[in-house]
## 1
Amino acid sequence: MTIEINNLHKQFGKNQVLKGVDLTIDQGQIYAILGPNGSGKTTLIKSILGMVIPDEGLISVLDTPIKKNWKYRKKIDYLPQIANFPPNIKVKELIHMIKDLRNSPSCEDELIALFGLEPFLNKKLSTLSGGTKQKVNIVLTFMFDTPLIILDEPTTGLDPKALISLKDLIRKEKAKGKTILITSHIMQIVEEMADEILYLLEGEIYFKGSIKELLKRTEQTNFEHAIAAITTTGSHA
Ligand SMILES: Nc1ncnc2c1ncn2[C@@H]1O[C@H](COP(=O)(O)OP(=O)(O)OP(=O)(O)O)[C@@H](O)[C@H]1O
């Protein structure tokens, strides 16, 4: 099992965001974490990454409880929703910095070519367009070889060509047996890529299942409509 979560609670001040999340994530599948704005998708992801400390509950990653155990983080690659790059360094310097920090084998050249980033390697990060920054973000996420990949809104700002490259890349990583978690508000991407849908609502996993199961449960034929209908059809997981 890749991730096991039991009774996860997290509140910020009076705002109870996660209210007892139970979740099992199996190896080798693509999971889409969905839910309305503010439903706690990023909070859930950050809890798995150890960047948010839960108030209650247990999380195990790759069969190891993560509490007070930071080493598991080396087994996860994470693409943050908003990458805060240092503005004054060049793309190639950033890539080398991250490589030095991780000190693991990496395949950045392949990825730089895939996303056509060669002309930008000597440019400062602050001068790049949003989509180009996101391509750099993707290179940094995929250049190492880890069993678990977490992508928070990975398609933001990408042009159609880059989007196709990203989807191919995700499929290639899945074929290697990796587990991939994705959040996205673009239902077309989710429908194309996800094996399993996790729908967060009011602090809990409201639905967990395949797209086929979701369509059946909501009595819809269209995935986007099924997602929209999910909360009105009593689909509690
Ligand atoms: N560090 C924080 N301090 C205070 N409140 C926070 C913090 N992080 C998140 N929240 C609050 O927790 C709730 C859930 O936020 P989160 O970012 O997890 O939602 P989300 O489902 O990822 O949303 P979106 O779809 O808009 O990205 C929001 O109400 C947010 O304001």
Note: Helices lie at 41-49, 91-102, 108-114, 130-142, 160-175, 187-193, 211-218, 223-229.
## 2
Amino acid sequence: MSTAIREETLGFQTEVKQLLHLMIHSLYSNREIFLRELISNAADACDKLRYAALDNDALYEGDSELRIEIEHDQEAGTVTVRDNGIGMNRAEVIENLGTIARSGTAEFLKQLSGEQQKDAKLIGQFGVGFYSGFIVADDITVRTRKAGTPAGEGVEWHSKGEGEFTVADVERPAHGTEIVLHLKQDAREFADDFRLQSLVRKYSDHIEVPVRMPRVETDKDDDGTPVEGSEKTVWETVNEATALWVRPKGEVSDDEYKAFYKHVAHDFSDPLTWSHNKVEGKLEYVSLLYVPGRAPFDLYERDGARGVKLYVQRVFIMDDAEQFLPLYLRFVKGVLDTRDLSLNVSRELLQQDPKVEKIKSALTKRALDMLGKLAKDKEAYQGFWNTFGSVLKEGPAEDFANRDKIAGLLRFSTTHTDSATQDQSLADYLERMKEGQDKVYYIVADSFNAAKSSPHLEIFRKKGIEVLLLHDRIDEWLMSHLTEFDGKHFVDVAKGDLDLGEVEDEAEKQAQQETAKAKEALVKRVKEALGELAQEVRVTHRLTDSPACVVLPEHEMGYQMRRIMEAAGQPLPEVKPILELNPAHPLVERLEAAEGEAFTDLAHILLDQAIIAEGGHLDDPAAYVRRLNGLLTA
Ligand SMILES: Nc1ncnc2c1ncn2[C@@H]1O[C@H](COP(=O)(O)OP(=O)(O)OP(=O)(O)O)[C@@H](O)[C@H]1O
């Protein structure tokens, strides 16, 4: 029996307490996952030891046969999960089993509502790990020792999951970790051979480390009667214990792929799709990439986990190797196993190795092809797009070489459907282009409604020309990196001169020129009245219902991007708009007939209204109100 020394009682970090409470409550109907989580951690610990032992064989302490053992005691109501992996020292135990060290955790926990089903989904997204033991146990003891440390540096951790835990130093001859779960009364069903075996097969077949369970064998005499006292325990490997990605594609079932995904991604729910490839030749690697069914909670966290699990010749090297996929594919999870890197590769070395770039470019293509295939299933792709679309939109800016491929995967709201759902591809748009149209038109606004109702769309609606309605924060950034698709240029309808190309016939163009000439005097007067407030005034034919609109010069940064940058504290040089007037509108006719102060007021009102319609803020709103009231009461 070990004697505990240096025993101390510590409180769980607040986030752990909250997580424990919510997890126990919301995952009640999915309790069996605790075993998957503990085996998954044990397998990771074995992987880590194998990696550490590459440099220092002594860490195995003479026991290099890595394994996981699961035992139970029906009478005592306990289940034990044991591994001879890397183990933990005292400081690691306190850190790993007392806190949650992931940024964004507190905000994540705030989203939990107390509604069982909703929370179960959210918690799955977070990953419950070790703490899931408390779904089935009311008392957990962990005994562990870090490989390579003296037997006296073992640690015992104990908790009832109620806010505090104790840690003490104990003597521990074997390195690795042992977790003893004392099952709650209503979870005793898990202390059962058959139940445990079937769970191990369900969740851990794909794990390369053998998961073993004890079986008692008894010698029999010649008559077949068991010999008393001859009982001995033999350990039987229950899982298949081959790395899933090494197996040929045809021999792996969908269920196995899905189970493996859950291990790799620490996710609860099924992946949307996957792509498994073995490459031989100049580069030699196996990759298994997955698209998750939902976003991890830290998708937009700067230091959120991303990247693949890296193996070199089947030896685990590191989690989250982010060098093999671009940032805009950070939602892709999976495994890369290669012969092209050396076993002692580190994060720093990865950054310098030219082979890494080559593999990255190959994996990027694989991932984009996988999305291309997924896109054939409209419904599934829509699910993907709604979850990860705004991340993929970072692609054209980050990955010039694959711009066209990424553009083909984008989905938009457009005037064709007039719905906020982004479900139209550029290929759909091209198919519907009007005869003579040679450009892809788009508008960027702060919200879908602002885009949909923009005065800039009036002429397009009248002529039946489709316009992409962009309203995500990232959209203007996206469009500044997308210049063409399939040979067709993109044109922002709120910038520069309106040119509808061949869609307008000669007669229309002639009429426009004549109107512009006829209104030259009006334009001059308005410009004088507005002074520096507008850089230019002109008549337009882009409006049918509105009296006026503002546009920006073609190469000027758009309003949406300006507002985002200003909100981020980046001062920008002021840019004055171009005011365009609709000569056929009664207000503009009235303006033309006005004189003196009435003219100046109305000119200002038209400019201010156009700025408001575009989603901008007025520099002097009170002046606008005063002028408008003057007009209304005249
Ligand atoms: N059997 C084990 N052997 C060694 N270390 C372990 C073991 N189980 C857990 N740990 C350590 O405790 C940490 C926390 O485990 P936990 O399961 O809570 O989270 P995780 O595995 O990092 O992520 P997730 O919550 O997504 O599963 C692990 O990262 C690991 O360092």
Note: The chain has 23 helices and 22 strands.
